[in-house]
Amino acid sequence: MTSTPVARPDEVRRYNRASLLRLLHVAGPRTRAALATELGLNRSTIKTLVDGLAESGVVEERVPRPGRGAGRPSLLVLPQPQAAVVLAINIQVEFVAIALVGLGGQILGRNSWNLHQRTRAPDDVITHVIESTTLLAADLNLRPVAAGVSLPGVVRRSDGHVHEAPNLRWTDVALGQRLTSALDVPVVVGNDAELGALAEHLRGTARGASDMVFISADIGVGGGVIAQGMPLRGAAGYVGEVGHMVVRPRGRSCYCGNEGCWETEIGEAALCRALKLPEESTRGTIVAELRDLSHDSRGWLDEFAEWLTLGLVNVVNLFGPELVVLGGLFTGLPAPVLDKIGEQVRDRSLVSRALGGVRIGTSALGNDVKLLGAAEAAFEGVLDSV
Amino acid sequence: MTSTPVARPDEVRRYNRASLLRLLHVAGPRTRAALATELGLNRSTIKTLVDGLAESGVVEERVPRPGRGAGRPSLLVLPQPQAAVVLAINIQVEFVAIALVGLGGQILGRNSWNLHQRTRAPDDVITHVIESTTLLAADLNLRPVAAGVSLPGVVRRSDGHVHEAPNLRWTDVALGQRLTSALDVPVVVGNDAELGALAEHLRGTARGASDMVFISADIGVGGGVIAQGMPLRGAAGYVGEVGHMVVRPRGRSCYCGNEGCWETEIGEAALCRALKLPEESTRGTIVAELRDLSHDSRGWLDEFAEWLTLGLVNVVNLFGPELVVLGGLFTGLPAPVLDKIGEQVRDRSLVSRALGGVRIGTSALGNDVKLLGAAEAAFEGVLDSV
User: Is the same domain home to A216 and A167?
Assistant: First the structure.
């Protein structure tokens, strides 16, 4: 429980260097003066660190674009994307996307392909990921130093073992181990909602919010929690499965064995039912239908919105976040519907009332949220050793 | 995110000293050799630390009781209870208990009194706590250096502000501030289930479990979570209110404004209904009725057990603990009922299946669990400076 830290002087230097890199990586270019202030270090320490990093090509210093201020502009310290490149892999039910992401979070190159029943088997996905990575890395002349994988499933974080990814129909796949040996770099595998939460926390709507929950609907519904600035995980690194919170006893059967899981009431199929679309409608059809929904037809969403609200009240009462970010299909809900959900959650949650009102927002990172989360998971182990 | 620590040499010594004290405090007397092994420090560092602590009377070394082993027994290092004493306060709906707790967790003296409608007002409780503490401290000739308060309510941890304690009928009470100025020591105020979780984690059934949830039923139902060895809190230090997770939409009305909260289905009133007792039955009556329940009457508990199970499936799916500890009234449930609940939760929770089976246990600390939790909350700030 005691959190006072301990280290030798060379560890102090490494720690300061990693903190500086992390700040540049997550928050973007800054002057030396800003780095000193934000890191609480003195100017001479910053000078030594920046000079060292510039010498090894990890950062460069550049005159900023001319602004309105008078006088000589301060040099900006910029992270050099090529100094540390990670591979991000986003495995979804309909497609796989991979990207090489540089220091600073910029996507340097990407590739993606559709999945069909036929090509969704673990062996096929793994083979295709490796081939595609090799091509992309050769194309860009870059070598990733670590990889992060996002996947809609129950994942043991410690070794990247996929216990179950029901919508992919994967069971017990040693994904972490297999990719580590094929790619020959450290590989982190995470649940997609967990990594979405990480991306929104570091680069999206939840920047600066140290207690937040990300809830995303695709085919399934998942959630990730950041508590006191750190990702919340359970035993063996498993994250919670918020989509399998039962909200409607004796409701629809869920593949998990329960009835009335939140996922069965607010997942893609439930949204299709609300919109009077066939349950197998494509993402494009659903999003277009939501966009074009007439004022009079918005009532179709009432029951769907009520189940979303009820589950969000539970989530807020259980985790006490300052902000909930909705992702995936939820970002397509009409603004008045989202506003009403927010009001209701603030009104009906005891913990929100204690907090003076939880905020409900939508993802700012769009389709890249899980890819960027996978990249950040990979960067976690990298910034100490760049 | 980088967690590598930084410190100066004197901080290192203080950190090692606090770690050693924490180990003795939580885990009990140990030989120097055991301390060296468990803390990963060398023998000479341990010697310096123990000698220093013995000199200032914080520990003493003693020959252990003769065992079966041959040869000279190693000296045991024992924490001296009087070296650091905290005040623990447990405010419940029916009573208040206070205790002076010494280093090592021993209760050195205690007092308690019943509360009635008339004496439950914040002013009366605070006055009585202060008077009673003064008497107890004088009696024992001890001066507490910090205080911890446990309370069934929504508490802002940062300053001990009680937003709402519905069963006490308290709203917006600056409890932390008022006790701090009256007692003239640092005061930590926590939600009772949160502090129960802390006590079970450090001294009870959940010792050694770094991911656990404590769920307790008294009049209300509360829960506390330890995740990766640390108490889980939300924004502003508020903890979740698991009792207000809606499990039964359109169920009974709850004072929180929702219908079908878990608390309305598994709290004291629900247990009375299940046992065909009047809802205002005393704790003693309920416990006796549970104890004497005939085999044939156990079926009365079926519906109650189903709601308990359903909520526990949700809790396990949301937090992914290795262990759930049930406290309060739940400890009185017949063993076969508890066993069946455990089986069902393991069977019906996706996350439990991934984990290879969550364990469900009952509190080992009995009525003292919240008092001991309050003491541990107070000790958190103390062990660094003993």
Answer: no
Distance from CA of B76 to the nearest CA of A (A): 23
- Both B213 and B344 in one domain: the answer is yes
Residue count (chain A): 386
Write the burial class of residue A139 (CB in 10 Å: 0-12 exposed, 13-18 middle, 19+ buried).
Answer: exposed
Residues A189, A211 within the same domain: no
Q: How many whole angstroms from its chain centre is CA B50?
A: 29
Quick check: B28 and B104 in contact, CB under 8 A? yes
Q: Could you count the other beta carbons within 10 Å of the beta carbon of residue B62?
A: 11
- Per-residue pLDDT, B169: 92
> What value, to the nearest 5°, has the Cα angle with vertex B250 and ends B245 and B256?
45
Is position A385 within any domain?
A: no
Q: Which of A79, A103, A138 is at the close of a domain?
A: A79
What percent of chain B is modeled with pLDDT above 70? 96
B345 lies in some domain: yes
Least Cα separation, residue A283 to chain B (angstroms): 27
pLDDT at A328 over 70: yes
Domain identity same for A374 and A345: no
Measured between CA atoms, the residue of chain A closest to residue B3 is A15
Residue B132 belongs to a domain with what CATH number? 3.30.420.40
Is A2 domain-assigned? no
Domain around A38: 9-64+72-79
- Kindly state the percentage of chain A with pLDDT values over 90: 85
Apex A36 CA angle, A35 and A42, nearest 5: 155
User: Which of A351, A358, A383, A386 to probe the B interface (max B CBs under 10 A)?
Assistant: A351
Residue B191 lies in a domain: yes
CA Rg, chain A, in Å? Answer: 22
Closest-CA residue in chain B for A320? B234
Query: Could you count the other beta carbons within 10 Å of the beta carbon of residue B1?
Result: 16
Residue B70 pLDDT class (50, 70, 90 cuts): low
| CATH number of B14's domain | 1.10.10.10
For residues B215 and B181, state if they share a domain: no
Of the pLDDT bands very low, low, confident and very high (cuts 50, 70, 90), residue A293 is very high
Residues 6+ apart with CB under 8 A from A136: A98, A100, A109, A110, A111
Task: Assess whether pLDDT exceeds 80 at residue A68.
Answer: no
Residue A386 with chain B: CB contacts under 8 Å = none
Whether residue B151 contacts residue B175, with contact meaning beta carbons closer than 8 Å, is answered with yes
Kindly tell me if the per-residue pLDDT of B165 is higher than 60: yes
Asked if A211 and B235 count as a contact pair (C-beta separation under 8 A), the reply is yes
Instruction: For chains A and B, count residue pairs whose Cβ atoms are closer than 8 Å.
Output: 190
Number of domains in chain A: 3
Which one, of A157, A230, A235, A142, lies nearest residue A191 by Cα?
A157
Query: Do A225 and A352 belong to one domain?
Result: yes
Query: Are residue A277 and residue A318 in the same domain, yes or no?
Result: yes
Across B201-222, average pLDDT: 95
Give yes or no for residue A263 having a pLDDT over 70.
yes
Interface with chain A: mutation pick from B317, B349, B379, B382, highest number of A CBs within 10 Å: B317
3-state percent breakdown (helix, strand, coil) of chain A, nearest 5: 45, 20, 30
CB A174 within 8 A of CB A187: no
Q: What is the pLDDT of residues B302-325, one digit of tens each?
A: 999 999 999 999 999 999 999 999
Alpha-carbon gap, residue B204 to B213, rounded angstroms: 13
Domain boundary among the residues A46, A79, A112 is at A79
**Residue A2: band (very low, low, confident or very high) from pLDDT cuts 50, 70, 90:** very low
Grouping H, G, I as helix, E, B as strand and the rest as coil, residue A237 is: helix
Average pLDDT rounded to a whole number, residues A113-140: 93
My answer on whether B19 and B124 are in the same domain is: no
Whole-number pLDDT of residue A63: 85
Q: pLDDT digits over B364-374, tens only?
A: 998 999 999 99
